[in-house]
Amino acid sequence: MRSLENIITLFCIAWMLPSCIEEYIPDIEAGESSKYVVFGELITEHEDQIISVSLVSSIQDPKEIPLSDCRVSIVDNHGKSFNGTEFEDGKYRVRISREFLSVGNAYRLEIETATGAQLVSEFEELLECPDIDSVYYIREDQPTNNPEVFIEGIQFYLNLDDHGSGNAYYKFEVEETWEYHTAQPLEWYFDGTSLHHVLPRDWSHNVCWTTQMIKDIFILNTAELQSNAYKRFPLHFVDNTTPHLAHMYSILVKQYAISESEYVFWDQLRMNNLEQGGLYDTQPSTVQSNLENKTNPDQPVLGYFKVSSVKTKRIFVKDVPDLEIKYLPLCSPAMLRYGLRDLMPDVWAIGYPVYVIIDRGAVLLITPECIFCELAGGTTTRPGYWPDAK
């Protein structure tokens, strides 16, 4: 009897344990959720300079909180001021004609929020940027956790050769574009009532292009080198298991000449991304900004106002030697057991239209992704810089 009582007692304790565990919410000071976040740039690539202003959200509900109705301006060291206009919540456009974008001039960002807070950057000099010496790739295999398994692909590199400007700090951005194809044309579809036959077959949704930025931080410091040159600076790696290299692939590399303080900012941010783990792992180091809250100097402003000249270079990649592309469009036609009867409204509940293939009297169901390449996030509009198909 005593044994039975012990078992019942243990069962009750086990049943009650989950109700005794309360969610732990870290005690984050209120001031931490009201810091300003500013990211802006002045670059010679275009006349419209974009500035974003927002607040840090709480850790319990992380999101961007854009700040509207700010007064935003960029001021140069000669007293010339250029005012911004808000074109999207928390985003401001400052137009500066190229005649006022001169190497050697210095610029700073000035912001007044709707509540009267004054956010000001340091003056940043517009530095001369050399031409990109070369961008290229090398066929490489990357190791995995299994010493017998490697990832096949291509590694991109950049060569720097700057013997003129004397600047020692650089940042690189990489924008990638790839062409991809779907497997089937638009030919047959069922709208719940009738089967429609498209003739001639419509291939207009078969070829798409996707463009996106590589999110890695690429920075280079040549201050400790004997010459202001660097060979084989690594950019990003592209493997053979995605549609990127299946047809044609291109990267646009942007090279920025930056100040030492901006280099330190991006280096700290890069190290934080590499080292930061969970909430209770090693805390990230403070990232030094070039912005200050003049109204409340004890409240740091997150972000950076970037001033730089830029040079670009684009390369294309097609049919990489000694690299088998191990990617096929995800399109597996499914046999309908009773043909179109399986697609009638009293049976089919997913929605219309339904796309099919008619093959020697058999009806095969295909998903829209087999036809419409836009569904993978790309566009059917060929980029103006894209070579004609050969």
Structure in words:
- This protein has about 400 residues and is mainly β.
- It has a domain at about 30-130 and about 260-310: Immunoglobulin-like (Sandwich).
- It has helices at about 1-20, 260-275; strands spanning about 35-45, 50-55, 65, 70-75, 80-90, 90-95, 105-110, 120, 125, 135-145, 150-160, 170-180, 185-190, 195-200, 205-215, 220, 230-240, 250-255, 290-295, 300-310, 310-315, 335, 355-360, 360-365.
- Strands 1, 2, 3, 4, 5, 6, 7, 8, 9, 19 and 20 form an 11-stranded mixed sheet that branches.
- It is globular and about 75 Å long.
- About 20% of the residues are buried.
User: Which class do the helix and strand fractions yield?
Assistant: mainly beta
CATH architectural designation of the domain at 31-130 and 261-308: Sandwich
Give the class-level CATH name of the domain at 31-130 and 261-308: Mainly Beta
Report the sheet-strand fraction: 35-45%
Uncertain regions spanning at least 5 consecutive residues: 1-32, 277-284
The largest sheet is:
11 strands, mixed
